[in-house]
């Protein structure tokens, strides 16, 4: 099958690796992907440009990696052109594009989530202060526009919460204040086709930049899968209590969801409560999760794109665990340095290293983004998988780069647990 993947990060590198065996095209891609796919430029913000490229390349399936093209209607344009696409319509992608919309859907579907209040840009500093009164001691402040998983500040410092809210309002977006959800977080990626929901393995991301969950929020610094601490029925409960009711509600609204629904949930005393939805695969959890999938990835993605997910045989998974550790550039996330040379023995081995933000320099790879590489590890135990990833990352050199040294450490030490009710 000829498959066009839209995007350029580590998630898209993982998608290409999972789709290998097919004729692959990636747009725009990054330097590390050239052995897996033909690379072409694209204006990914233009649905029409994506349709034109898909037609020119005779793509039989288009897989859209990031949220921005989905929210601008790329999947709608492809469907109208009769090209199978993995990714929800513009209306359905509002589950990620507007946090307020997601809250409305959850209220209608009876899904547990945080209490939220929204402040519009015209309400200004006064609106922020009045709303902050109603929250704390943990403040959760979200950009109610698209922020690629990076627009959230969680803090006990009221002044920091107010400053983030002000910055979001000044950028012209509404800001959402939420109550803090207790409990460890789960990222569960669900294939959704109308009312049919098929979960992938559950994963946990590490969103803060530095060890011990310190420093600013990032797009994600590392992840592991599956979750040894999750109750045995944990995945099924997230499907039954969150993904399936939301999928049904989207069908009832006449905007069925077809693509990947990323459920970000906190597992509190009552079970799962939704922190956020995304309309796409998560990054970097996908890099670990898809490395465990034995079923060829094209089968479930094509089934979703053609409305045949209900007929898909059960997905097959490898035994054991996978972990991924992100190598970040100096000064990530505030102002990542670019153009630094990267060296290491495994840079061209996609079983071990996926490229997130790299370009070709004169003598090899150079950094071209905040998150530069995603290093993968596998093992029979979570401890082995994590050790494997750190063994590989220690062999990579890049000036100013850093990575978290504690990915999955609390889970290995048995320090992550869920409250039973
Ligand atoms: N890993 C967080 C995200 O993809 O938004």
TrEMBL record:
Reactions it catalyzes: 5-phospho-beta-D-ribosylamine + glycine + ATP = N(1)-(5-phospho-beta-D-ribosyl)glycinamide + ADP + phosphate + H(+)
Pfam family, one: GARS_C
Domain ATP-grasp: 103-306
Pathway of action: Purine metabolism; IMP biosynthesis via de novo pathway; N(1)-(5-phospho-D-ribosyl)glycinamide from 5-phospho-alpha-D-ribose 1-diphosphate: step 2/2
Required co-factors: Mn(2+); Mg(2+)
EC number in record: 6.3.4.13
Molecular function per GO: phosphoribosylamine-glycine ligase activity
PROSITE patterns, alphabetized: ATP_GRASP, GARS
Record key words, sorted: ATP-binding, Ligase, Nucleotide-binding, Purine biosynthesis
Record-stated family: Belongs to the GARS family.
Protein name in the entry: Phosphoribosylamine--glycine ligase
Source organism of this protein record: Corynebacterium godavarianum
Biological classification of the source: Bacteria, Bacillati, Actinomycetota, Actinomycetes, Mycobacteriales
Gene: purD
């Amino acid at each position: 099958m000829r498959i066009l993947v839209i995007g350029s990060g580590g998630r898209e590198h993982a998608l290409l690796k999972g789709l290998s065996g097919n004729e692959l095209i990636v747009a725009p891609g990054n330097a590390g992907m050239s052995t897996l796919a033909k690379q072409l430029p694209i204006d990914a913000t233009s649905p029409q440009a994506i349709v034109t490229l898909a037609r020119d390349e005779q793509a039989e399936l288009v897989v859209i990696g990031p949220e921005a093209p989905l929210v601008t209607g790329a999947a709608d344009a492809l469907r109208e052109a009769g090209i199978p696409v993995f990714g929800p319509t513009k209306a359905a992608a509002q589950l990620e594009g507007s946090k307020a919309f997601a809250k409305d859907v959850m209220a209608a579907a009876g899904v547990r989530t945080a209490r939220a209040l929204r402040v519009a840009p015209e309400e200004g500093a006064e609106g922020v202060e009045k709303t902050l009164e109603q929250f704390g001691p943990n403040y959760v402040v979200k950009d109610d526009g698209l922020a690629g998983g990076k627009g959230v500040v969680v803090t006990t410092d009221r002044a920091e919460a107010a400053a983030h809210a002000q910055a979001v309002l000044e950028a012209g977006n509404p800001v959402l204040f939420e109550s803090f959800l207790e409990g460890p977080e789960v990222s569960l990626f669900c294939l959704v086709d109308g009312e049919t929901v098929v979960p992938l393995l559950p994963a946990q991301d590490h969103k803060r930049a530095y060890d011990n969950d310190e420093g600013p929020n990032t797009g994600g610094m590392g992840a592991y899968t599956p979750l040894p601490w999750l109750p045995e029925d944990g995945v099924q409960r997230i499907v039954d209590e969150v993904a399936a009711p939301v999928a049904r509600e989207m069908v009832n609204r006449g905007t069925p969801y077809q693509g990947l629904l990323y459920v970000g949930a906190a597992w509190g005393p009552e079970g799962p409560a939704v922190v956020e939805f995304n309309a796409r695969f998560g990054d970097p959890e996908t890099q670990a999760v898809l490395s465990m999938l034995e079923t060829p990835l094209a089968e479930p993605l094509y089934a979703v794109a053609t409305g045949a997910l209900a007929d898909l045989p059960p997905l097959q998974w490898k035994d054991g665990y996978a972990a991924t550790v992100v190598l970040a550039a100096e000064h990530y996330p505030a102002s990542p340095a670019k153009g630094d040379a990267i060296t290491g023995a495994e840079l061209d081995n996609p079983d071990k290293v996926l490229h997130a933000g790299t370009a070709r320099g004169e003598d090899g790879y150079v950094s071209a983004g905040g998150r530069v590489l995603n290093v993968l590890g596998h093992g029979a135990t979570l401890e082995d998988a994590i050790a494997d990833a750190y063994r590989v990352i220690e062999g990579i050199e890049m000036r100013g780069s850093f990575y978290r040294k504690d990915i999955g450490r609390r889970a290995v030490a048995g320090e992550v647990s869920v409250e039973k009710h």
